[in-house]
Write a structure and sequence with these properties.
This protein is α+β, with helices and mostly antiparallel strands. It has three domains: 1-67, no CATH class; 102-224, no CATH class; 225-433, no CATH class. Helix content is 29%, strand content 16%. Strand 7 and strand 8 (371-377) form a beta hairpin. Helix 9 (293-300) packs parallel to helix 10. 24% of the residues are buried.
Length: 450
Amino acid sequence: MPPAKRDPRYSVQDVISIVQNGESGVDLDFDDTDASDEESDSDACVDKENREPDCPANVDIEPPSNRHTMPRDRYRWQKKDFISPNTDFSGPALTDDVTSIHTPLHYFQKFVSEDMVEALATNTNEYSVQNHGRSVNTNTKEIQTALGMSLRMGLVQMPGARMYWETDTRHPPVADVMPRNRFQLLLTTLHFVNNFTVSETEKRDKLWKLRPWLDSLRENCLQVVPEEHNSVDEMMIPFKGKFSSIKQYMRGKPHPWGFKVWVRGGISGMMLDFDVYQGSINGVRVKSELGLSGDVMKLASTLAKGQNYKIYADNYFTSVPLVAKLLEQGIHYVGTARQVRLPNCNLEDEKSLKKKGRGNFDHRVEGKHNICAVKWYDNRAVTLVSSFAGPEPVQEIQRWDKVTKTYIDVGRPYIVGVYNKYMGGVDLLDSFTAKYKYALKCRRWYMYIF
């Protein structure tokens, strides 16, 4: 019996050359499905020394995909002086006129407009009819009163919302404004969208129950004149309860402490833009060329191009493609970075800098985009990347020395001082909002985001 005829075997190089040359005389069965990065990196059939792969003959060989790739040799770092570009700010200036200071209510209405409150009252009445069979008959004035009571509860915090009406713990600015039962009824019937008019396409958004309110609030935030220096960081909305339907929010693992929100804020602590993190979409994480840095790019895209705005972020977001992409739009960047996200950037290791002593640093400059990377050793090594700030001029700062029990002078690169000065905007905002939280207990998890 003659041996079974086997299909011809091809190496990876043969397949790539066949595809690039457009040869049609070879019959190959390609699989059109896209493989993930993890699968392609751990392919056991491909030999690392470019030898012929030892694979079964019936294994489909996937052609090179057309998606964007980031070759490691795209960026070339050199040991040379960094020349800072012209970063003079040309955007609108913030006014310091005393006449521009308004009442707290006026500032609140700049973000929560009357149209938003009116829509909230309408949807609340419709939801109460749909869910309970009768309307709560609320109006914009009552909704505004309930919101003011919630803020007041954040200033005078108690373990539970009912305690503001109890005899021993009664708080007149809350208890005298609205009865307890009425306040709790409004709290349980607050609604932001008509469930019967939302399409199936809109329901693919995990925050569709809150989306109209979030979009209106974000539009009002974008009306604020942005500052020259903006920081991007995450904020956490506390939530330790259980989701009534976890599939409505995340198909992955929810954060144990609450909901993540990416925020762009000014150095003054004003929130200028935000985006609520939703995890994967239909169980699949959307991959882009920028990866996690795409969240920063989304928040920075609303800034005017070419006016030399500055963005600051930590190593969770920083990558060289992000800095280059922002630089193309006239937006500069400073951020801490992880070494694995700096391809071909051979900075000194931490042990070498530690031997030289505190205050020593090493730097490299990417010639094509004029991006500077600096590794500075203080108590430990930290790496920063910027498109406008470099190591010079070195500033002298004081640090406590445990050995001599005295303060000593330590050199600090200019890029570190700039980062420390302008990075804390979102942290300042988070400390403000932490004061306005009261004991909310609700089965609807999106109410905590509201």
